[in-house]
Amino acid sequence: MIRLVDSSLRDGMHSVRHSFSPEQVALVAAGLDRAGVDAIEVSHGDGVGGSSIQYGKAAFSDEALIEAAASVVQRAQIAALLLPGIGTLTRLQAAQRLGASVARVATHCTEADIAEQHIGWAAEHGMRAIGFLMMSHMIEPAELAVQARLMESYGASVVYIVDSAGAMVPRTAAERVRALRDGLDGATEVGFHAHNNLGCGVGNALAAADAGATWLDGSLRGLGAGAGNAQLEVLAAALERSGHATGVELFPLMDVAEDVVASLMERPQIIDRTALSLGYAGVYSSFLLHAERAAAKFGVEPRAVLMELGRRRIVGGQEDMIIDAAAQLAADSHPAPTGSSGSA
Ligand SMILES: CC[C@H](O)CC(=O)C(=O)O
Ligand SMILES: [Mn+2]
Fold it and tell me: How far apart (Å, rounded) are the C-alpha atoms in residues 182 and 9?
């Protein structure tokens, strides 16, 4: 049995500049709940506590959004994402008080050790504790399994491989799932979170399921950072057709995607050259809008900025480097005249 987690109201926040209102959240969450989705993730795109100049100001507080979602669901669990260092444990505690019962604690794929306190607290306080290893394409499957074991040792009952950059293809996704499946205790489940920058979002999630992942993320209409996530309603149909039960009712899921989410989207969730460059260069999907803004400011190509970020191996939390890379590219293309000191 596959458990489906919807991320439209969290990863989708990147795509709408963190603007969803409690009313919009309630509409989408009610539709997802009717369709039988297991968990609905709600917060700023960068998790609880993410609203800031660095990551983008949200229109409403995480707490108001979580409360709105929790007030309309009958069956689905509400999930809160926390990136230690962006949000603190107190934000997770507040999320739990307001109705979140799933804690997804996210770290860069080599930094699982910073999640010990948060995963431990969630597991000890009745939440389902999930570890979320971001930018998982950047390290080899065996190294990823070592990090996953750390999260398991802190109390995570599920560890996710997170293809933040949408840089994986079905083979590399499946290799990582197999490495975690082999390295973790049999009781610990493996999850997969896809991005569609290389056009492989649903395919990667299917490959992950075939390799033993039992938790899969997606979002309605694919609403998410970069080219978006695995499109949830498409994934549900494709899983059913490939023999994986999800417990989700497909038509109500299609309906909330088309009748509610489609009209909330600010930009088409397509693989244009900038989104494709994210996957090709292996860059964090949530950098898309930041890179477009920085490129416009410095008069350079967004694609060039993303390729430079990939070359520098910049990871989440280093958003200021996007501006640095754009400024550097602008300076390289308009070098100061010989003999100039570069300052007035
Ligand atoms: C900034 C948090 C990030 O969006 C989490 C996530 O969904 C990912 O890494 O793909
Ligand atoms: Mn994501």
Answer: 32
